[in-house]
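Title: [Solved] Inhibitor I9 domain-containing protein 3D structure

Original question kept below for reference.
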Amino acid sequence: SGAHYGSYQIQFHETLLRRTFNGEAYQKLYSYHYLINGFAVLLSPQQ
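Solution (posted by the thread starter after getting help):
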């Protein structure tokens, strides 16, 4: 269902961010899951 797929996308984004930043702090600004599949993050200058 659409709700199930939306939950899957959010979980997928969280997993991808945790793996990408490998324990570093990050702040997810928004999770796009209605029109496009993607996300936005706030990065430090070092990242």
